């Protein structure tokens, strides 16, 4: 799995930080979390083909998180995409996509599948689960987590002891299904070891610190949390429904995550030094995201 | 007057060239011609405050020319703009701006004045005239010209010979008005010299070479013309309703302009060397625009 930060600013971009967007390369897919203006160009710089994007998860409908959708959707059409694109976001996503569709003349030859989300499981595949939780912003806003599903170890010697011959029955058992063999019911737990814990990544979108975020982020390997403000600008954070660096660090500590990555940095700071150091006092394993930063896990 | 190229690519951006947009600093205003995705960030790099933009002229409604409008309009709201913003474009501009208005949650405290244009004069002030002409693209598309209005020289000695005292009458005469003085009618031509020719700039938007473009660009100091393709890709230019470098140069020659600047370069070329050299064989005073290139005139 690889996380690539495409944009790490807040509402206004700077020369160093573009509007919010995060790419995740995992499970033979490329997924985007948010899609601010200019994301299609950031993808070029990050050497990620937009044609490989399978899913886009939108946290909320503030312009800095969605204004790159139109360009990306049109560009994919221009490049001849035929594969479906799935877009997930809060209630109102259909209206947003309709607005994009009436924005100028263009044609796409692929399907846009629009999914309006609610608290809970957003999508579950064989390989991973994406969940979301409504967080606390000044408009409806969701945080996302994605958790890798690891199959438990298949204990071949146990299967052999039970006399089951190698073949399709092994696969079924490994997938957690009961099988019948020579009149006997074999349960998967008879041949499966412990499941390894899969990797988990959480992303806050825009939010005040909240219980829902802690629950969603619980035990994440990486928590990507907005940190629009330094601690001394706490009142601004409250007024604008954002978090300070210290508040983000407190969430990381409460949720028992392994690593905290701060993003969505306000243009009011010329350096992210304070943001980082004050967060690290609360939660040591903290870094501040920069555009094109990559994290392997 | 200063022209600043903010984006010089065609439909797909590259690391070097963003989507089309041209800024003009003149007459104590900043005007934009087209506004592709990411224009607000290009403005930062070019050190032009978006708050100073007074007018935006849109050539046509292909995404690469308009997808930066939403971000710019929202950003100006975010920055607290109160001054009106005038936007000009083909029929359908109201619909485009409505789509932007329903795109997510935001609030602006300034007026957007929407002007749907037709062939002819778009706006005339004391200082300049903007005209447009419908050109030949695969959707309705307009080229623009802006011409500085120069007042003729006021010949003070002639006014004195006629016995007119210095004061408000001089201003009226200089502005082309007749005045009455001691029972005599004084006509402006009695005290005015020849008018100096004002600067003229023309911009093609997207088009096949056409007579309307030649007429609009006639005697321009600078013609900014699209040159999506090299001459050998002539058939692509025809198929996609664009121009080749040589065709743009022929327009420049026919229109008797002083300088040709080629823009809207396709991503298929890694260098603009051919585009430039083949155009220069037809029209010597040609350059190829690059992002952030400035021209003073």
Low-confidence stretches of chain A: none
Q: Structural class per helix/strand content of chain A?
A: alpha/beta
Largest protein-protein interface: A-B, 35 and 35 residues
Per DSSP, the total helix count of chain A is 10
Which strands sit side by side, in order, in the main sheet of chain A? 6-5-4-3-2-1-18
Multimeric state of these chains? homodimer
Beta-strand level of the residues of chain A, as a percent range? 25-35%
Order of helices and strands of chain A: EEEHEHHEHEEEEEHHEEEEHEHHEHEE
Largest sheet of chain A: 7 strands, mixed
**Count of beta strands of chain A:** 18
Q: N- to C-terminal separation of chain A?
A: 5 Å
Q: C-alpha Rg of chain A, in Å?
A: 21 Å
> What does the average pLDDT of chain A come to?
95
State the helical fraction of chain A: 25-40%
Backbone shape of chain A: globular
What can you tell me about this protein's structure?
2 copies of one chain form a homodimer. Chain A has 10 helices and 18 strands. The first copy, chain A, is of the alpha/beta class. In chain A, the strands form 4 sheets. Chain A has a 7-stranded mixed beta sheet with strand order 6-5-4-3-2-1-18. The first copy, chain A, has a 7-stranded mixed beta sheet with strand order 7-8-9-14-15-16-17. A two-stranded antiparallel sheet of chain A has the order 10-13. In chain A, a hairpin with a 2-residue loop joins strand 11 (179-181) and strand 12 (184-186). The radius of gyration of chain A is 21 Å and the shape is globular. The model of chain A has no long low-confidence stretch (mean pLDDT 95). The A-B interface holds A 11-15, 18-19, 37-38, 40-41, 44-45, 61-63, 66-68, 70-71, 74-75, 78-79, 95-96, 99-100, 102-106, 139 and B 11-15, 18-19, 37-38, 40-41, 44-45, 61-63, 66-68, 70-71, 74-75, 78-79, 95-96, 99-100, 102-106, 139.
């Amino acid at each position: 799995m690889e996380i690539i930060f495409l944009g790490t600013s807040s509402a206004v971009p700077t020369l160093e930080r573009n509007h919010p967007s995060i790419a995740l390369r995992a499970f033979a897919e490329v997924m985007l979390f948010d899609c601010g203006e200019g994301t299609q160009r950031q993808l070029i710089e990050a050497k990620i083909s937009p044609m490989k994007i399978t899913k886009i998860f939108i946290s909320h409908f503030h312009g800095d998180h969605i204004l790159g959708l139109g360009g990306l959707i049109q560009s994919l059409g221009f490049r001849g995409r035929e594969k479906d694109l799935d877009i997930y976001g809060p209630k109102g996503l259909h209206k947003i996509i309709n607005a994009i569709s009436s924005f100028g003349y263009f044609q796409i030859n692929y399907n846009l599948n629009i999914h309006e989300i609610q608290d809970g499981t957003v999508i579950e595949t064989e390989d991973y689960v994406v969940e979301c939780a409504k967080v606390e912003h000044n408009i409806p806003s969701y945080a996302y987590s994605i958790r890798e599903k690891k199959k438990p170890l298949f204990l071949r010697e146990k299967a052999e002891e039970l006399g089951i011959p190698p073949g399709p029955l092994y696969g079924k058992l490994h997938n957690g299904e009961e099988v019948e063999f020579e009149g006997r019911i074999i349960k998967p737990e008879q041949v499966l070891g412990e499941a390894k814990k899969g990797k988990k990544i959480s992303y806050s979108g825009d939010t005040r610190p909240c219980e829902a975020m802690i629950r969603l982020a619980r035990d994440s390997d990486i928590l990507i949390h907005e940190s629009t403000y330094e601690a001394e600008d706490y009142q601004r954070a409250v007024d604008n429904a954002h978090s300070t660096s210290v508040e983000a660090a407190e969430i990381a500590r409460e949720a028992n995550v392994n690593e905290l990555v701060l993003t969505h940095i306000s243009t009011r700071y010329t350096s992210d030094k304070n943001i980082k150091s004050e967060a690290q006092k609360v939660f040591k394993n903290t870094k501040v995201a920069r555009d094109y930063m990559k994290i392997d896990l």
